[in-house]
Amino acid sequence: MRTHTLSVLVENKPGVLAHVAGLFSRRAFNITALSVGPTSDPKVSRMTIVVDGDSTPVDQVHKQLEKLVRVLKVTELEPEEAIERELALIKVRVNPDLRAELLDVATSFRASVVDLNPDTIVLEAVCSPGRLDALLTQLARHGTCELVRTGMIAISRGGETITDDMDSAPPELALTH
Question: Taking the C-alpha atoms of 143, 106, 153 and 32 in order, what is their torsion angle to the nearest 10 degrees?
């Protein structure tokens, strides 16, 4: 499956997420992952939207997003030109005989132990989605009993920013660097 990552700057106003989700829903496009958060400008939020390129016409999605009133900018991030991260909290059942092995796996993936008790260990992992999948595969034999993933966030490598060329934004939302 070829995924596409869209970085979308939107006005930080109520209902914007519903409008974006509605666009996908109306066209029966699937969102693989969605993360939304504030930017350094309190008037602007950033959405990271991951879609399946095999079943979703990404060019059409890009154009439709740009037509939405509260969308300021849409950029597709190429995997080799982006830093991608995901946060996960993973609760794993603990077999006392395998506790050391479990902790070694966590250490090798730079996962932190955030809760430890006789029956379970909760790990926090921040890494690329592929590395997170590899960690989950390693933990599967221990009995993962609960998993929470944030969805991917991404930012472009190098000096360019999504806020470059924001001349088309309304003056009250023009971003400063």
Answer: -20
Please tell us whether the domain made up of 3-77 is placed in CATH 3.40.50.170. Answer: no
d(CA 76, CA 94): 41
Copy the structure tokens of residue 107.
């250490």
Positive or negative: CA dihedral 79, 177, 47, 109 = positive
Residue 39's pLDDT band (cuts 50, 70, 90) = very high
pTM for the full model? 0.82
Reduce the DSSP state of residue 8 to 3 states and report it. strand
The fourth-level CATH superfamily of domain 83-153 is: ACT-like. Chain A, domain 2 (3.30.70.1150)
CA distances (Å), origin 46, targets 20, 86, 110, 145: 12, 15, 27, 32
Residue 144, helix vs strand vs coil: strand
